[in-house]
Design brief:
The chain has 106 residues and is an all-alpha fold. The chain has one domain. Helix 2 runs antiparallel to helix 3 and helix 3 runs parallel beside helix 5. It is globular and about 35 Å long.
């Protein structure tokens, strides 16, 4: 949802997906790695819309800065750092990730 949602032309849909991911981040999950993937999707999608103000996302990331699960905590910390540095990051570094290696060869 993070990478592919960013390719949607409609910003309102991107915001809806972000809200859905914010809700999903609080669901009881069997594996905390899944929560980490949700936080990564939030980071990618929120970066794609230039980190427009979203209190739900801010609350989620703040809550998980203090997670007992190191992977989840790390992803929240990375979000915070990327958001803080976003205005100074060259646009070339924020390009979309290729879908697979075959696209790089072609």
């Amino acid at each position: 949802m993070g990478e592919y949602g960013a390719s949607l032309p409609d910003q309102k849909k991107k915001i809806k997906i972000l809200d859905y991911l914010a809700e999903a981040a609080y669901l009881p999950l069997e594996d905390e790695l899944t929560r980490g993937y949700i936080l990564t999707a939030i980071t990618k999608l929120h970066a794609a819309i230039d980190f427009i103000d979203n209190p739900k996302i801010d609350a989620v990331m703040y809550d998980y800065l203090f997670s007992k699960h190191v992977d989840v905590q790390q992803r929240a910390i990375e979000y915070k750092q990327i958001k803080a540095l976003h205005p100074r990051i060259p646009k070339e570094l924020m390009i979309k990730t290729p879908l697979n290696e075959a696209q790089l060869i072609a």
